[in-house]
């Protein structure tokens, strides 16, 4: 890819949200996820994919791909207004960290 082609390509953004969930709430949190996914797809045009990763018994990581950093920032500001997202977030005991990063290389179709 030439430098000119690279600059014409939109830079995707990755959102990394590390959070904890009490073990007794895991099933309910997982049950709320499909509605949250549908709401993200419907509400935010820049939403591309969501992966939920379990790090240990209490700690989870959401890995979200957005079409651009601007769309990720917009979603971060508005996601609390989306009922299905609020319902899924209700099981989060603590947000440990929230970061956004530029995707510079992707080896799959999701990014």
Give a short summary of the structure.
The chain is 37% helix and 30% strand. The chain has helices at 3-8, 26-43, 69-78, 83-89; strands at 13-20, 47-54, 59-66, 94-102.
The residue-averaged pLDDT reads 91
**Unreliable stretches:** 4-8
- Sum up the overall morphology in one term: globular
Major pleated sheet:
4 strands, antiparallel
What is the helix fraction of residues, given as a range? 25-40%
Q: Mind telling me the C-alpha Rg?
A: 15 Å
Task: Give me the number of helical elements.
Answer: 4
Structural class: alpha+beta
Strand content: 25-35%
Distance linking N and C termini: 17 Å
Task: Explain what the structure shows.
By secondary structure, the protein is α+β, with helices and mostly antiparallel strands. It has four helices and four strands, in the order αβαββααβ. It has a four-stranded antiparallel β-sheet. A hairpin with a 4-residue loop joins strand 2 (47-54) and strand 3. Helix 2 runs antiparallel to helix 4. The two termini are 17 Å apart.
């Amino acid at each position: 890819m030439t430098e000119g082609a690279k600059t014409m390509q939109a830079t995707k953004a990755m959102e990394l949200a590390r959070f904890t969930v009490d073990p007794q709430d895991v099933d309910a949190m997982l049950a709320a996820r499909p509605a949250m996914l549908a709401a993200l797809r419907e509400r935010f045009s820049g939403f591309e994919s969501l992966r939920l990763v379990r790090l240990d018994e209490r700690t989870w990581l959401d890995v979200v791909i957005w079409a651009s950093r601007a769309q990720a920032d917009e979603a971060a500001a508005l996601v609390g207004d989306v009922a299905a997202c609020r319902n899924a977030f209700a099981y989060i005991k603590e947000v440990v960290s929230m970061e956004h990063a530029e995707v510079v290389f992707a080896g799959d179709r999701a990014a």
